[in-house]
Write a structure and sequence with these properties.
mainly alpha, 65% helix, 170 residues, elongated
């Protein structure tokens, strides 16, 4: 059954969180998540607020991850967990979370935009020119197109048998 009081607390908590008042939003979001502990949005935003207000990164991560497990196809839950990771200075974990979200929601513009901000970039083609230089930009786009169509090779390390050298004993 829908708990109207929990929803009111949630809306008010979100408004305070967006206004930059996580300390004031924390009791409201905590109350909403306690009234309806099965709602993944309440858990996720409570975790995000906990990270901002009290810097409890592990608890915030656990809450946001639980929310994702309950609703895998909700982009905002991935964005909240990535924001917690960024606050904890875990950039790679944030990028991995967004990549996992893109696995379930490949066309979500918000996930794509945030992932693009975190993705590792290649070095400029001409190191002595700035990245924004039109020559570097055009060469970089050309390099990207070529690498997209270039077959990827698996490198064989020393000590591993190569796929061509294995024979079946008869």
């Amino acid at each position: 059954m829908f708990d109207l009081d929990a929803f009111r607390d949630f809306r008010e908590g979100i408004a305070k969180l967006r206004d930059g008042e996580p300390e004031d939003a924390l009791p409201l979001l905590r109350r909403a998540s306690q009234r309806d502990p099965e709602n993944p949005y309440y858990l996720s935003y409570f975790g995000l607020c906990l990270a901002y207000a009290e810097r409890q990164w592990e608890d915030a991560e656990r809450l946001c991850h639980t929310a994702i497990c309950r609703a895998r196809r909700q982009a905002q839950l991935y964005l909240n967990l990535a924001e917690v990771y960024l606050g904890a200075d875990r950039r790679q974990a944030a990028a991995d979370t967004l990549a996992r979200g893109l696995h379930y929601l490949p066309y979500d513009a918000r996930l794509q935009e945030e992932f693009g901000k975190l993705a590792a970039r290649r070095q400029p083609v001409l190191w002595f020119l700035p990245r924004a230089n039109p020559v570097n930009r055009n060469l970089g786009m050309l390099r990207h197109r070529v690498l997209q169509h270039w077959p990827r090779r698996k490198w064989i390390t020393v000590g591993e048998p190569s796929p061509q050298s294995t024979t079946v004993a008869s």
